């Protein structure tokens, strides 16, 4: 089924001017960018967005990083969008990411790993609603 997922192009990637190259990978994989904006998250916004990871040892580092420079938040649409996006992103740790994936090609480390993608349709809906209103999504 055609579904939607939520994606972030992270600070390490926007700083290296990789937005277009990452978008090309998403589009080549059959995902359609139906909403997109460049924002600079506050620390508080990053903390709320990553609330599920609050107990993890890397929470402080993660939320500092995500609020350190602009990001591009996106809604992607396509056949099985959550799974398709996770496939094109590659493993969280770039050292484990498959050839041809975004993280294999661009990520610097497990933290500075260039992109975020929702891990389930349920979380996708929550994450999309956190950054976009219905009228900003044009399918
Ligand atoms: P993301 O998909 O954005 O969701 C949680 C993020 O935590 C994950 O990508 C990683 O970038 C980050 N992360 C996971 N493990 C570590 C770690 N050991 N150190 C720093 N960041 C991490």
TrEMBL record:
Domain Nucleoside diphosphate kinase-like residues, every copy: 2-139
Cofactor: Mg(2+)
SUPFAM superfamilies (UniProt xref): Nucleoside diphosphate kinase, NDK
Compartments in which it is found: Cytoplasm
InterPro entries: NDK-like_dom, NDK-like_dom_sf, Nucleoside_diP_kinase, Nucleoside_diP_kinase_AS
Keyword annotations from UniProtKB, A to Z: ATP-binding, Cytoplasm, Kinase, Magnesium, Metal-binding, Nucleotide metabolism, Nucleotide-binding, Phosphoprotein, Transferase
Protein's UniProt name: Nucleoside diphosphate kinase
Residues holding ATP: 10, 58, 86, 92, 103, 113
UniProt gene name: ndk
């Amino acid at each position: 089924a055609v579904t939607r997922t939520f994606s972030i192009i992270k600070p390490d990637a926007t700083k290296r001017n990789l937005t277009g190259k990452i978008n090309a990978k998403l589009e080549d994989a059959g995902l359609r960018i139906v909403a997109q904006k460049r924002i600079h998250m506050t620390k508080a916004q990053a903390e709320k967005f990553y609330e599920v990871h609050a107990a993890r040892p890397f929470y402080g580092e993660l939320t500092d990083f995500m609020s350190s420079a602009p990001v591009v938040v996106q809604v992607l649409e396509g056949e099985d969008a959550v799974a398709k996006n996770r496939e094109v992103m590659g493993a969280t740790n770039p050292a484990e990411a498959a050839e041809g994936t975004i993280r294999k090609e661009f990520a610097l480390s497990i933290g500075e790993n260039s992109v975020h993608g929702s891990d389930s349709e349920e979380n996708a809906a929550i994450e999309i609603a956190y950054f976009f209103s219905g009228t900003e999504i044009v399918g």
